[in-house]
Design goal:
This protein is α/β, with parallel strands linked by helices and about 190 residues long. The protein is built from six helices and six strands; from the N terminus they run αβαββαβαβαβα. The chain is about 35% helix and about 20% strand. Helix 2 runs parallel beside helix 6 and helix 4 packs parallel to helix 5. The two termini are about 20 Å apart.
Length: about 190
């Protein structure tokens, strides 16, 4: 019980920023190259964690991919936020043209001005946005955790999608912590606001 109180106090005293990566319609649209088959389960976990963060008045940040590639048309409604997971007033949003969120000058500047920041990262584009952001952050001494059951990526084209995701998460584990959504929800729910 004392350990749980220490964890809860840690979350209360120094709440990490919840970073929601690329929660965009593109990833829900069947037939698109970035379609994610298990998107419903992932968006449900994202919504649970966003609700917890918002209830506790902890910081929430949103990343939006606005690539100029032929497969990702920024003028299309496919780049729109997923209904129910849209940023709220007062929450930070950053648009990034390349896979890493650090390709956004505003994001890179914001992160460089934050001291001793911790980020919990979830959402889509595990093998692009999440991987490259974590690696870039690691080289800048920024601390990231990813929500292992709150991230997803497109099917690699060949092989088993679950094995591919597991391999990408394992690589990310070199640069960031991995935590399940249930653990974060338990820690955060112990705090009374």
């Amino acid at each position: 019980m004392i350990l749980n109180q220490k964890k809860a106090a840690s979350m209360l005293d120094d709440p990490p920023i919840l970073v929601c990566a690329d929660l965009q319609v593109e990833y829900l649209t069947e037939g698109r190259s970035h379609f994610i088959a298990d998107a419903e389960a992932i968006t449900s976990r994202c919504l649970q964690l966003m609700t917890l963060w918002r209830h506790n008045l902890w910081p929430v940040m949103h990343l939006k991919r606005v690539a100029q590639a032929a497969w990702f048309n920024p003028a299309s409604n496919l780049t729109d936020w997923i209904a129910g997971l849209k940023p709220r007033p007062g929450e930070l949003t950053f648009e990034h043209p390349l896979p890493s969120a650090y390709s956004s000058a505003r994001f890179a500047e914001y992160m460089s001005n934050m001291k001793s920041i911790r980020c919990v990262l979830l959402g889509f584009s595990l093998d692009e946005t999440i991987l490259s952001t974590v690696v870039d952050g690691f080289h800048r001494s920024h601390r990231y955790q990813i929500v292992g059951d709150g991230v997803a990526c497109k099917h690699p084209g060949a092989g088993d999608a679950a094995s591919y995701k597991q391999a990408v998460v394992k690589v990310i584990g070199i640069y960031a912590g991995i935590q399940d959504s249930a653990d974060l929800i338990e820690e955060g729910s112990e705090i009374e606001v």
